[in-house]
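Please fill in the sequence for the structure shown.

STRUCTURE ENCODING:
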């Protein structure tokens, strides 16, 4: 039976690329098994990257927490501004069209 390769590539934020390759046979069962293997391999690498990012913040806090708080603050300000605009402007009047 002919063999095939399943390939995957994971590009990190820093530009570093991880390449994954799995040899499979040319049948559906082998391809599905190969996809599961690729998925597991990539998941392991992603888990390590997530753990590194969680530990890379200052004083044990992740950088993501600071960014989330800033984004929440911006969203609240935008919502408050939109609410004030809606409350301060009178509704538009509708014009009736005459039917003849």
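FILLED IN BY: designer on duty
SEQUENCE:
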């Amino acid at each position: 039976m002919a063999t095939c390769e399943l390939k995957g590539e994971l590009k990190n934020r820093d530009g570093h690329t991880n390449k994954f390759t799995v040899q499979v046979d040319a049948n559906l069962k082998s391809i599905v098994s190969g996809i599961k293997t690729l998925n597991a391999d990539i998941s392991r690498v992603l888990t390590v990257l997530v753990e590194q990012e969680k530990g890379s913040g200052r004083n044990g806090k992740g950088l993501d927490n600071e960014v989330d708080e800033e984004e929440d603050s911006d969203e609240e300000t935008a919502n408050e501004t939109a609410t004030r605009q809606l409350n301060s402007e009178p509704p538009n009047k509708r014009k009736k069209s005459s039917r003849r």
